[in-house]
Amino acid sequence: MTLTEVSQVKLSDNDLSRESSPTHVYRSRISSNSKSLQEKDTKTALDRINKSISRSTTRIKKDTGKLRRKQLQQSLLRTTSTLQVKDGVSSYKKDFGYDLYTIDTEEIPAPMRQPEMQAMAADEVSDDCVVLFDLETTCTGSHAEITQIAAMKGDQRFNKYVLPTGNISTVAADKTGLSVQTTVQGSQILVHNGRRVAAGSIHSVLSEFISWLRSIQGTNITNGSKVILCGHNVRVFGMHAIISEAERCHLTQDLQAVVGGFMDTLPSLRQFLPGRDSYSQANLYKDIVNEECEGHSLVEDVSALAELVTVSGIPLEVLAQHTVTFLTAVERVRYLNEKNTRLKTLKGHLSTLPSATLNKIACSGLQYSHLKLVFRRGGEAALKHLLSEPISGTRTVRVSKVKQVHNQIIGHFREVLTQSSEV
Fold it and tell me: pTM of the predicted model, to two decimals?
């Protein structure tokens, strides 16, 4: 029984007599002192425990804070490293032969995506707006120059030849009958099937074509709409060629003032007449009009397309589904032209890579100098990060996550590094 319990027991008479004795009083005082000492010791022990817990908690908080600060510093270091690789910093590895304090501020472009082309609005498309046209060019590549423009709207015709600044490819010459020849005086002339034809510069002919379209717009279109240039496979060929030439001649705004968009009869007829083996204009004309296209003349081709559209009975609603606004067409052509320029730099150094890979690198906005710059700034890790960089809003990466692709590109720059003190 504890001292507290003893104090609560009801005492008997004998106990009272004993309690009054000096011996009992002495013992009672000892018990009281023992109780006080026990309480004091307990309180001291609790204080020590509480202080120990407090110190431990403080230490844990400090350690947690240090850990968090370290994590944030590492995260900031990674972010800063990535930004330095892309944007340029004031110091780089000496291994590449660069001054430690050389300032380099060239930026790596963000991932690019091919612009989407938009169809024209329904109220912008009418029969009155449609002008059929076709082109001849020096070749089929991205650097093709126009050598002839032909167009028609009802009984109104346009047909002009262009003297290109470059040569006409053998394939194009065999197809069109056009060639560039040099006279005895040293001047160049355009020849069609052995006969010289009047040919102007692309700027003068394109300006004439825009003026002709403006007259068509004024006499045939009453609601203020713009002209729609309609051709077979125009989205792949004609649209790109005429916009590219307008860009080079600084006539894009003039063309935009009169042309609202483009209309393609190839996908339109594929949708309207499914199941055919061929959708080339010549084969469609033969099957539907029941006539052969005689020879090759651009003017005849445009007339044949007009007859093909009429005889096939294709509704305007179907043709309207395969239109492209002029502005989105310009965006696409600019993107493709810039991509082709970047692709040329890649092919000049990384020709061992598959064409599809080189094309994807160029489509993402990168050229050879960008890859070289990133490798110089951050080495292999930075180059891998750039190639496998996620594209915002998609599940795809900039170029590739494939190690084989990474290793091929890295191997190239390693070889360059061994051959030169400066990459």
Answer: 0.74
Contact in structure between 358 and 405 (CB atoms under 8 Å): no
Among 220, 227, 223, which residue's Cα sits nearest to residue 255?
227
In the chain, % helix, strand, coil (3-state, to 5) comes to 55, 15, 30
Residue 106's CB is within 10 A of a number of other CB atoms, namely 11
Query: What is the rounded distance in angstroms from the CA atom of residue 410 to the CA atom of residue 316?
Result: 54
Q: For residues 378 and 129, what is the distance between their CA atoms, to the nearest angstrom?
A: 56
Burial (CB count within 10 angstroms: exposed 0-12, middle 13-18, buried 19+), residue 395: exposed
In this structure, what are the phi and psi dihedrals at residue 173, rounded to the nearest 5 degrees?
A: -65, -40
Strands (E), 278-406: 323-325
Are 122 and 137 in contact by the 8 Å Cβ rule? The answer is no
Contacts of 423 (CB under 8 A, 6+ apart): 96, 372, 375, 376, 413, 416, 417
What residues contact 284, with CB distance under 8 A and at least 6 apart?
A: 269, 273, 276, 278, 308, 312
Between CA 343 and CA 365 the distance in angstroms is: 10
Query: Which residue(s) pair with 220 in the sheet?
Result: none
Burial of 278 (C-beta count, 10 Å sphere; 0-12/13-18/19+): exposed
Q: Give the pLDDT of the chain (423 residues) as one tens digit per residue.
A: 443 443 444 444 444 344 444 444 444 444 555 555 555 666 676 677 677 766 766 666 556 655 665 555 555 444 444 545 555 543 334 344 433 333 455 789 999 889 999 999 998 999 999 999 999 999 987 789 999 999 999 999 999 999 999 999 999 999 999 999 999 999 999 999 999 999 999 999 999 999 999 999 988 887 789 999 999 999 999 999 999 999 999 999 999 999 999 999 999 999 999 999 999 999 999 999 988 776 568 999 999 999 999 999 999 999 999 999 999 999 999 999 999 999 999 999 999 999 999 999 999 999 999 999 999 889 999 999 999 999 888 889 999 999 999 999 999 999 988 887 554
